[in-house]
Each structure stands twice: as C-alpha cells, then as structure tokens.
Amino acid sequence: MTITVDIRTDRTRHRGLGQVLSAGGVVAGVACLVGPWLAESTGLLVLTGAFEYRWPSFLVAAVLLGAAVRLLTDRPAVRIPVIAVCAVAVVGAAWFRLVLFPMVGAAWEETGRTPAPGGVDRYLVVEEGAAMIDPLWRVSVVDGSGLGAQIWRVAHFNGDTTDGALSRVTWSGPDALVLTTADGQATTVRLDPRTGKPERQLSRP
Q1: What own/partner pairs with CB < 8 Å and gap ≥ 24 does 89-92 have?
Q2: Model-level pTM?
Q3: d(Cα 91, Cα 185) in Å, to the nearest integer?
C-alpha cells in the first residue's frame, strides 16, 4: 500500500513538473516568434536586450519541451520522435551560436556612451563589431531609465569604404546628433524631443 501511494505521488509530481515545463516551452516558443517584433515596435530596452536574437529563446523552448515530453508520456511512439526533434534543435542552435554566428553576427561591443546635454535623461551608445574583416559601427539612443527606458537605432555603418567608416558622433543639443564619417562627411539626425526617437535611420554604405 505504501509503495503504491509513493508511486502515485511520484507520478503526480512528474506530471505537474512536466506541465510547468511544457507551459514554459510554449512561452519561450511564442517569445522566439514575436519577441523581436515586439522589441522593435515598442523600443523598450529590456525587450531589446532579451530578444535582439532569436536563438536563445529557441534553445530554451527546445530544451523545455523535450524535458516536458519526457515527463508527461511513457509512450515510446510519441516520446522518442519528439525528444529526437528537440535534441536536433538544441544541437542546431548550439552549432549556430558557436560556429555560424561568429561569422555572420557582429558580436557588438559597447565602446562609447555619452549623456545628452541640457540635463535630459537620454544618452547615445556607440557599439563596434565586425563582419568577416569589415569593421561595423552601430549608433543608438537610449531615452529614459528603468523598465520604461527605450532604445532607438540611429545608424549602422560598414567600414568597407571611407564613407561608411564612422569617425565621430557628437551631440548637437539634446535633440540632435551629428555623425561624421572617415571621409569628413557630417550628417545631422534629429530626435523626437519627447521620446528620443530619430526622425530617420542612417545606413552606410
């Protein structure tokens, strides 16, 4: 009698944990699909940091769903194929991150942060990366602080040519930036005084 109760309790615990993992996997899968779009449309810094790349949430979804199926069913016809698919997805995501991503991704590193003049709660961020051998720059503006902070992409530069190599970024008042390339060309980008969102995005070349 005691053994039967223990077995039933153990199965109930496994099923409960499996349901929690399954729900987490579904949430991670949905986040993989809509997270980048939501981050871009709202500009929220906390979402941009979490969903700039899809592969982390994809990896979490595959791991959680595989573990959930392992706990929720004992049927080999269901469990084995699903776990195999999840395992392939995990290996694929890991391969992408370790092998392919370093070649196609910029691996951005923040190299400059300058607050806006005039006491405005806003600052610009300059990041540098590389695509193969070409240097890359990305300029963004962060407006506000805390969970409500918003980040807006201002410009992307590819240093394959001098007109695409970023030389300097400076504030021209609290609502405008001046971006200068290596060939001396200066471009002013104005920001929305209320939100800090740029009136346009530059892409060079």
Answers
A1: 89/58, 89/59, 89/62, 90/59, 90/62, 90/63, 90/66
A2: 0.76
A3: 46
